[in-house]
């Protein structure tokens, strides 16, 4: 099933308070988003700037925008599935043809930072500066203004939801505490001017087990243990999760990287998974923005993550 079905389905049987009030559109049991993070060299270089002159390491990452992304676009075109690609601004500037090819094939482009920066210990003004720089790059290269954000490394600091709301984002996809989408309360004053109340964003939850990084990434001395999964193992793992989430009425968000899953055998396994998804009864295969647009119609109660008070030492 693709496209946007009518609203008004039954409540999902999903687990716990995170699913309260949530329902899929009429005729839909569950949904799947196929997402791709076009990180190219950015994530590795942010963590390891010393690798800027290491052609071997750079080539491992450049496989994404030079080779893998085109194979994946072929898979998506053959399967007639629209996906969401999260793109750091710096990557768009460095690999404009790849980003325009994604856009020209009708896929959604989301914001993924400027240089795939981590956010631990970073000030709010710096977080905002990176966000604006990413917007500028995606606009200059592809003429797009994303409505969705995914934090690099899924590192979402407590200040970020309010910043995202102020800049007009409608959804976010980095958190892991639910099987279904929900509304994330963006906090005091995030509605814009003082006193305008809290804004909220749709959260589309992710999970490390639904990411290809741990399974496929290996760069000696930089990332990975040297164990590299077989694509058939990943097909089995992801299919198990997809089938279980369909049974429970959940959202399956798969996160793949073109430099990893763009390789031939992995892309073939992914295509088999997409075929399986398309044949699954009542499964809505959609972009992140299509899912977010549905969630906005539900008038859910926004969820504010509880602030943490650390226990006093001694
Ligand atoms: Zn990334």
Strand percentage: 5-15%
- In CATH, the homologous superfamily goes by the name Glycoside hydrolase/deacetylase
What is CATH's topology name? Answer: TIM Barrel
- Structural domain tally: 1
List of distinct ligands in this structure: zinc ion
Number of helices: 11
Can you identify the CATH class? Alpha Beta
Give the class from helix and strand content and strand pairing.
alpha/beta
CATH architecture assignment name: Alpha-Beta Barrel
Instruction: Output mean pLDDT.
Output: 94
Record field, number of beta strands: 9
Described by strand count, sense and barrel closure, the largest sheet is:
5 strands, parallel
- Which series of helices and strands comes N to C? EHHEHHEHEHEEEHHEHHEH
| Intertermini distance | 58 Å
Helix content range of the residues, please?
25-40%
Query: Radius of gyration, rounded?
Result: 19 Å
Low-confidence stretches: none
Shape: globular
């Amino acid at each position: 099933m693709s496209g946007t079905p009518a609203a008004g389905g039954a409540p999902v049987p999903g687990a716990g308070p995170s699913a309260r009030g949530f329902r899929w559109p009429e005729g839909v049991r569950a949904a799947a988003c196929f997402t791709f993070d076009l990180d190219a060299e950015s994530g590795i270089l942010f963590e390891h700037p010393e690798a800027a002159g290491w052609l071997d390491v750079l080539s491992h990452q450049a496989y994404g925008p030079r080779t893998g992304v085109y194979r994946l676009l072929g898979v998506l075109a053959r399967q007639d599935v629209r996906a969401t690609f999260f793109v750091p601004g710096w990557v768009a500037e460095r690999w404009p043809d790849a980003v325009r090819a994604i856009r020209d094939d009708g896929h959604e482009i989301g914001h993924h930072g400027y240089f795939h920066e981590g956010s631990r210990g970073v000030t709010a003004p710096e977080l905002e500066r990176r966000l604006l720089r990413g917007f500028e790059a995606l606009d200059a290269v592809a003429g797009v203004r994303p409505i969705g954000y995914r934090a690099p490394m899924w590192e979402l600091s407590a200040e970020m939801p309010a910043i995202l709301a102020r800049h007009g984002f409608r959804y976010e996809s980095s958190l892991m505490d639910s099987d279904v989408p929900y509304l994330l309360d963006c906090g005091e004053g995030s509605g814009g001017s003082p006193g305008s109340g809290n804004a909220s964003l749709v959260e589309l939850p992710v999970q490390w087990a639904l990411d290809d990084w741990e399974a496929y990434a290996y760069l000696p001395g930089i990332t990975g243990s040297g164990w590299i999964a077989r694509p058939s193992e990943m097909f089995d793992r992801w299919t198990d999760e997809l089938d279980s989430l369909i049974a429970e009425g959940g959202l399956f968000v798969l996160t793949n990287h073109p430099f990893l899953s763009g390789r031939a055998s992995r892309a073939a396994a992914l295509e088999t998974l997409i075929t399986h998804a398309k044949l699954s009864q009542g499964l809505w295969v959609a972009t992140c923005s299509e899912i977010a647009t549905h969630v906005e119609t539900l008038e859910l109660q926004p969820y504010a993550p509880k602030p943490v008070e650390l226990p006093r030492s001694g």
